[in-house]
Amino acid sequence: MIRIAGLRKRFGQLEVLQGVDATFAAGRVTALVGPNAAGKTTLIKSILGLTRPDSGSITVNDSVVNGDVSYRRRIGYMPQIARFPGNLTGAELLSMLETLRTDVTSPDRRLIETFGLEPELDKQLRTLSGGTKQKLNAVAAFLFSPDVLILDEPTAGLDPRASSTLKDRILADRAAGRTFIVTSHVMAELEEVADDVIFLADGQVRFSGSLEGLKKTTRQVNLERAIAELMTRGKVA
Amino acid sequence: MTAVGISKGNGSVWRVAQPQTRDVIRSRWLVFYFVFFLLATEGMIRFTGGDAKALLSMSNIVLFVVPFVTLVYGTVYLYGSREFIELLLAQPIKRSTLFAGLYLGLTLPLVTALVAGMSLPFIFHGFSSQMETVTLLVMLAGTAALTAAFTAIAFFIALRFDDRLTGLGVGMAIWLALGLLYDGLLLVVVMLMPDRAIEKTLLAVTLANPIDLVRIALLMRFDVSAVMGYTGAVFRSFFSDTVGIAIIVAAMAAWIALPLSSGFLAFKRKDF
To answer: In this complex, do B92 and A73 lie within 8 Å of one another by their Cβ atoms?
Structure first.
């Protein structure tokens, strides 16, 4: 579980996070949605320790994020842009990541098989297509059986089959008790996997609750329309 | 502080540096870089019979090329690795360990390329004099130190400026200033102020240019003040060989340590 309290972050004149309070419940998939520049990426990067917040606190599975790196052992991260050292092979990339995790003895390479990635692993990464790199990106996130997975636009660039495979994996791992934070621009896709929704706009949480609850409060039939309704209300207010 | 972080995670530093070294060594640019030194040295040996003074004239090209390639390749590589560095930062690894790994992973292959490129022809043809051997060693040590210094500067630039065009521009400006304008500007200053006291100031200023430091280290071995440039001549007139070399080594160490520690601080504080 991840708890965020009073998180603030300013970049120069721009206050990107203006006191964010949020809870990402354990064993559930939370969709993090919001318009561009709402602060989604900054929030994710704060959880990962890539960005240091000005104030507020973040707790991941009972450990407070304060500069110590060990809490990241239990996090898998799939960044939005998959860019790897071009002259390494996929196999070399994965073994590099594995050597950085001395605590993990048997990495979880199941996704390689389900994606059919095996024949691509010995090619240099710069020769791989965007979709193949994105698959490798997903493999890397799931490699260490983390309790918490943060997936930033996970299906961008994936073909329908790979995208379905990944979503199946998310649902299976959720059933196994893992916690997910997922962002995407495709609401229909989030709707397939999300249990909860956190809607972020202008650096503040405007909605936090279950997907069903969101549909009820906005009286809309699906996530896309519900979010559209939230955005319209936001402008009126 | 930095040293403690590195020594604690020695294994982890190498775990980052090793794959990165492999990535850089396989890049086309590094192969060109190696071939350039190989051909320049081989040509120099063939056309001049490889005497120590010919090596000296080759150093003029080398002192021009090494800082340039290191700065450009270093900044471009780091800007291109931005997303991968973010992925590595999301792993359970300390920033100090990661920084040390990235720095070594970039410096080692560059040093390897130039050391191998310059020494292989000599090993193949054999050394003609002891003078030549020592000059080559000074040249290798000097250019390796220059690489270490300019890689550190490249790190500082890439961390300090998020925009890659700005970063490249700053890199070019530093290279132009240290590699081309420096000696010329000094000369102008001296001509405008014909005062003997100025020499001591000049001496201090000479230490403030890593390229000049290596050039002086090379030229101190010869009585060729004419090609030493003004700063070299002043330096020579003040120091004996031993003291001079000690001062050069210390100043060079500072030229590596200062940008490296500034880069490390920037890396530690940076919001990615």
So the answer is: yes
